[in-house]
Amino acid sequence: MQRLTNAQLDDLPIGIRAPAYARAGVTPGILHLGVGAFHRAHQAVYVDDILAAGDTSWGIVGASLRSQSVPDQLNPQQGLYSLMVRSAGADDVRIIGAIDRVLHAPTEREALLDWIADPRIRVVTLTITEKGYCHDPATGNLLADHPGVIADLADASVSVTALGYLCAGLQRRKARGAGPVTLLSCDNLPSNGKTLALVLSQFSRDYDPQLAEWLNDNVSFPSSMIDRIVPATRAEDYQQYAQMAGFDDQGLVVTEPFTQWVVEDNFIAGRPAFETVGVQMVTDVEAYEDIKLRCLNGAHSLLAYAGYLAGCKTIAETMAQPAFQQLLTAFWRDEVTPQVEVPEGFDLHAYQQELAQRFKNPALKHTTWQIAMDGSQKIPQRWLATLRGQLEGSGSVRWLSFGLACWMRYVAGFDESGQVIDVQDPLAKTLAQIAREQRDDTRAWVSAILSVTSVFGDDLKANHRLQVSVADWLVAMRSQGTLAALSRSLKI
Ligand code: CS2
Question: Which of 85, 223, 256, 290 is the most buried (most CB within 10 A)?
């Protein structure tokens, strides 16, 4: 079967919309690092709307920092891919033309550095996942002992990390006089712009002190809150779509109707008129980020670990269990809501209700396993500010303790029927080893986990109340099973 290319656009089946602009007239303005499904279902769609509205100077050049798979998916398709928006009602499909090409950074390093140094590029956007920032999630500081950081600082002619590529490219940009540029983080981190600014400035001081100076005056780092649920595309999605479309689209992304992007308006070298295509441009994004991380991502991780242990494959399946639905309500009501600061006019209750509906979307097969990935990098910003606040104010920590107990069980590496779990996490080995060593003493296990400072900082390991609460859950889960222990606690 033929792949999707520009040639197919003139003759698409009914129900599939083509880009509403001539692709040949588009020039590059944005460089994006990390062209995963999330970028393709979120930022690239807003940019596609900008191009359709007539400002064609913001085409996207993408770069994949590690794997060859996205360049292989998109380059033979001239950057085109289909966006399938799924809800219980119906699917809506359109083809996105905003991405021109995707570089494979490890084999095309020179080309990538040239793009970073290209004066037409005025914004570099990033979705490189939490661990891509090479930072200590507990403090936000650069991890000086990160193997990629060490490699990048040892030899300026190679790059491994996003920070390495950015510094090499920005050094070239500075040398060529290509002018200022905005680096826009679109990852799920609190104050993601500030996080990026901090690690890049710490990295660049060792890399090239003059570059570190230049960054101060020539780069802006707006923060942004990004929201759209985008599960990994499944084999059956590709097959069903090919049957419907009559061509093969290896770049297909499947997502939900909801989409939101709130961006701090701090672009040193100009920007697309994002506000005309539904982006909320604000002076301070932090309150939105904080609410989203704690309510949506916090709940996602909680449901993912608990659901996985109880045998639920997707978030929608997890939400179909009354106990997990009640857990979600109780978690928000008892622990999150007392801790978040709500901007004026924001209806937190309505926001949470809408989230619960989004989680229930049966057409989205968002796996608990996918969300459970990289917990050591996600938990600090999703759970711990809430947990610390509740501990300080003597509020409930019951549901977050349950979440921590589920996570501990998950990263120990075996599910409730003794099957091995494929744990994907940079700390997977350490966490599994702790579980092995402390197998016979639950309190010691909890204490050893809370002593992992890159996740929990220095303060939580000494908290007796937290230790007891997590240990009690682990004991109950071991004797009754996760779902039964939770149901009993909820008196269901
Ligand atoms: C999810 C997020 O995979 C995860 O950890 O919690 O990707 C989530 O779907 C998005 O942040 C939604 O905006």
Answer: 223
Residue at token pair 């991890």: 143
Atom of ligand 1 nearest to the CA of 297: 6
d(CA 190, CA 389): 16
Ligand 1 center to residue 292 CA distance, Å?
Answer: 10
Give tens-digit pLDDT for 396-428.
999 999 999 999 999 999 999 999 999 999 999
Q: Can you name the CATH fold of 287-490? A: N-(1-d-carboxylethyl)-l-norvaline Dehydrogenase; domain 2 (1.10.1040)
Beta carbons of 58 and 30 less than 8 angstroms apart: yes
Query: CATH 1.10.1040.10 in the chain, residues?
Result: 287-490
Q: What is the ipTM of this complex?
A: 0.99
Q: Ligand 1 centroid vs 484 CA: distance in angstroms?
A: 27
6-282: in CATH 3.40.50.1820: no
Domain with CATH 3.40.50.720 in the chain: 6-282
Nearest to 192 by CA among 269, 135, 255: 135
Q: Indicate whether residue 135 lines ligand 1 (CB < 6 A).
A: no
Is residue 295 within 8 Å of 340, Cβ to Cβ? yes
Q: What is the pTM of this model?
A: 0.96
